[in-house]
Automatic annotation (TrEMBL):
Domain NADP-dependent oxidoreductase: 13-202
PANTHER family for the chain: D-THREO-ALDOSE 1-DEHYDROGENASE, NADP-DEPENDENT OXIDOREDUCTASE DOMAIN-CONTAINING PROTEIN
Pfam families per the UniProt record, alphabetical: Aldo_ket_red (PF00248)
Gene3D superfamilies: NADP-dependent oxidoreductase domain
Transmembrane segments: none
Classification via SUPFAM superfamilies: NAD(P)-linked oxidoreductase (SSF51430)
InterPro entries: AKR2_Oxidoreductase, NAD(P)_OxRdtase_dom_sf, NADP_OxRdtase_dom
The protein's name in its UniProt record: Aldo/keto reductase
């Protein structure tokens, strides 16, 4: 069993699984999972809505016999579409035409994405989502359970927190926290006593928050979305040999530098991409010059 304190003590690369069961078929997703696991990646980021509701089951099949060797994070608050809906059935069509007519597959995916629904966070929603996640993943506990796209007020709701603490005591979740919206005031949480174990947020929207000290596990996503800012440089006070690294690599290096300890999420589909990110993370202190 992987303890959260290990994730808090150093940098870790996590695998984002949002495309599993969506743009990535179950067969493709399992290949990616195998590649990542073989390279030492054991943090898998999920949500009830990922892969139009299919991602958790795919990962659940993969982790059979490996449960104590992986860290599973899932989320609740955004419901997957009805699997019988016409839009979801078009996903298979999108895969088929992806190479033949790239523009059409994008249109189909956008249409299916409109089927997702954001709901109000309640204990009842958390209970149902947790039950569905555990069943799909074929496990009796989650390492981390997050409110999906929440505000700071959402994670401070006493009824939701009380339910999550009850499930923590029962052993169904080990830790909980939130994935925060772009306009969430994360600094507000630093001055309030809460039982939140983890804060997941976008590197694009909350880069300055990384300068704040917190005991909670910090998880970054949308790291490569910062790439345009680093087309000719990296962050203030940092330099790097520009000719050796493109803007995506520089964005990743900046995230490693700013986070220092915690998890950086990335969607990776090849052994080369996985190894490249792991290498950059392992050597970022030698690559960046302060």
């Amino acid at each position: 069993m992987i303890d959260i304190s290990l994730l808090q003590s150093q940098l870790h690369l996590g695998l984002g699984c949002s495309t599993f069961g969506g743009s990535k078929s179950a067969k493709e997703a399992k290949l990616i999972l195998n590649l990542a696991f073989e390279e030492g990646i054991n943090y898998f980021d999920l949500a009830r809505s990922y892969g139009y509701g299919n991602a958790e089951a795919i990962v659940g099949d993969f982790i059979h016999g490996k449960r104590d060797k992986v860290f599973i994070c899932s989320k609740f608050g955004i419901l997957p579409p009805d699997p019988s809906s016409v839009k979801v059935k078009l996903i298979g069509l999108a895969r088929t035409v992806k190479r033949m007519v790239p523009g059409l597959s994008s249109v189909v995916r956008q249409s299916a994405a409109q089927s997702f629904s954001k709901t109000v966070f309640t204990p009842e929603l958390a209970q149902k989502s947790l039950h569905d996640s555990l069943r799909a993943l074929k496990t009796d506990y989650l390492d981390l359970f997050l409110l999906h796209e929440c505000s700071t007020s959402d994670v401070m709701r006493e009824d939701v927190a009380a339910y999550l603490e009850k499930e923590r005591s029962a052993g169904k979740i080990r830790h909980w926290g939130g994935t925060f919206l772009a306009d969430a005031n994360l600094k507000e949480l630093l001055n309030i006593k809460t039982n939140i174990d983890a804060l997941q947020f976008s590197f694009v929207d909350h880069q300055t928050f990384l300068k704040q000290k917190t005991d909670s596990l910090r998880i970054l996503f949308s790291v490569f979305s910062m790439a345009p800012r680093f087309s000719n440089q990296v962050g203030e006070g940092i330099s790097v040999v520009l000719s050796k690294h493109n803007e995506f690599e520089r964005s990743f290096l900046q995230a490693c530098h700013d986070l220092e300890r915690g998890v950086i999420l990335a969607s990776m589909s090849s052994k080369e991409h996985i190894r490249q990110n792991l290498s950059l993370m392992a050597n970022y202190k030698n690559i960046l010059i302060e």
